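for the recovery benchmark. tokens below, seq after
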């Protein structure tokens, strides 16, 4: 059950975290962009997906204009309210597009512990998935990675994965993005070892093949080899 809005004293969201979200959104409301094709700069507010004002994790924050923020926080008995999955979907898609449309104005503050990895991803955003098997690493699809503060968005032609980048570890929930699904499909859990992301993908659906994977930056390893 949703907690009544305004029942608790508002906990301030850290200034750095607010800056990351505002910059990633290029001061656009993600619902205005996707639902109304309105790309105008807005006076943004930061909404909490779980309505918990003490939870200021980057994956819990969404940039909204005042009107859409009020709509999300409103409790309606007669109409279907905006759902957290909707907001997360539109936020992640807009962060990905905004980084391409509004760079460098949408470039983000780089947190200290993640600076080296964040810089590398910005320089080499294209990665390739390799599936690990007894016969070796099998090349699969290409990915585009984007860092938004402590939030990482990964996109292929079929799916989008988003979640927290904690130090060198990425844990993200993924879903197929050709339309909004009513649920996520699984979890990526990978760790950067200095040259590649190594880890696994785990599907929520029984019978779907989970396994070990590697994400390798397209040009990074070759660039390192060319150095004197």
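predicted aa per position
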């Amino acid at each position: 059950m949703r907690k009544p809005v305004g029942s608790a004293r508002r906990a301030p969201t850290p200034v750095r975290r607010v800056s990351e979200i505002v910059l990633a959104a290029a001061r656009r409301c993600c619902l205005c962009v996707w639902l109304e094709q309105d790309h105008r700069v807005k006076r943004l507010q930061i909404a909490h997906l779980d309505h918990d004002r003490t939870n200021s994790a980057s994956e819990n924050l969404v940039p909204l204009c005042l009107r859409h923020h009020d709509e999300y926080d409103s409790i309606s008995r007669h109409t279907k309210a905006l759902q957290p999955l909707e907001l997360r979907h539109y936020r992640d898609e807009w962060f990905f597009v905004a980084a391409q449309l509004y760079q460098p104005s949408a470039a983000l503050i780089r947190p200290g512990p993640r600076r080296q990895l964040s810089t590398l991803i910005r320089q080499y955003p294209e990665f390739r998935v390799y599936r690990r098997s007894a016969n070796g690493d099998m090349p699969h699809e290409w990915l585009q990675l984007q860092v938004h503060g402590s939030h990482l968005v990964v996109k292929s032609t079929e799916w989008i994965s988003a979640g927290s980048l904690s130090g060198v570890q990425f844990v993200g929930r993924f879903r197929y993005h050709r339309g909004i699904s009513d649920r996520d499909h699984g979890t990526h859990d990978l760790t950067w070892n200095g040259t590649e992301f190594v880890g696994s993908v785990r599907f929520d659906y029984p019978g779907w093949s989970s396994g070990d994977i590697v994400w390798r930056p397209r040009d990074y390893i070759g660039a390192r080899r060319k150095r004197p």
